[in-house]
Amino acid sequence: MSTTRALAVTRRPVAGYNEATMTDALLVRAALDGDSTAFATLVQRHGRVCLRYATRMLGNREDAEDATQEAFVRAYGALGRFDGSVAFRTWLMTILINRCRTALSRRRRDDERVDASADVATIALASERQTDDMALRDAIGQALGRLEAVQREAFLLKHVEQLSYEEMSAMTGVGVSALKMRVQRACERLQVLLRETDDA
Predict the structure, then answer these.
(1) CA pair distance 18, 4, nearest whole angstrom
(2) Which of 11, 41, 153, 168 could cross-link to 19 by cystine, CB 3.0-4.6 Å?
(3) Could you report the per-residue pLDDT of 101-139, keeping only the tens digit for each?
(4) pTM
(5) DSSP H helical ranges for 2-60
(6) 118-200 domain in CATH 3.40.50.620?
(7) Residues 43, 72 contacting (CB under 8 angstroms)
(8) Out of 1.10.287.130, 3.40.720.10, 1.10.730.10, 1.10.1740.10, which CATH number does the structure's domain 1-114 have?
(9) How far is it, in rounded angstroms, from Cα 30 to Cα 22?
(10) Coil, strand, or helix at residue 45?
């Protein structure tokens, strides 16, 4: 089920604006005024990035879609609390990160192991190797899936989403120095795991 279908509400369009040129903050205001297409525009703008992050974090497309949809549903329900002190994307990603953390916690309780999908294999990892070779793509995906969740989260936010440490801190609630350490350890661990694959 698509996120926009799940978020369908009664449409009361706000006249006289072009959704494509509106800022996120103005779209939030329009959504609060009752225009459901304003929020649908926010979903279109940010949905792909959210789904990409969730897929790489959770390693499972279905779980990622669920987490992304739940994040947008929660964001819609909490729009009145969005005060513009941070960018909408930062606010939304904070919700998504928490949804992914919850999903991973649930997996641990169910004794399931994260198995990152091959989709993540296109990431340029710390080894700085990029290739179309399927075996390497699989190895990178598996290595990413073997990282501790907090390291994988920090690595993806920094090296895939290209966020600053300050943005990451605002989204995760973790201090900048701790995030830098997590990213460093993630890169070191990925290099070790990929070397192990080469030696196998």
Answers:
(1) 19
(2) 41
(3) 999 988 776 644 444 433 343 444 433 344 456 676 677
(4) 0.73
(5) 3-6, 24-32, 36-58
(6) no
(7) yes
(8) 1.10.1740.10
(9) 10
(10) helix
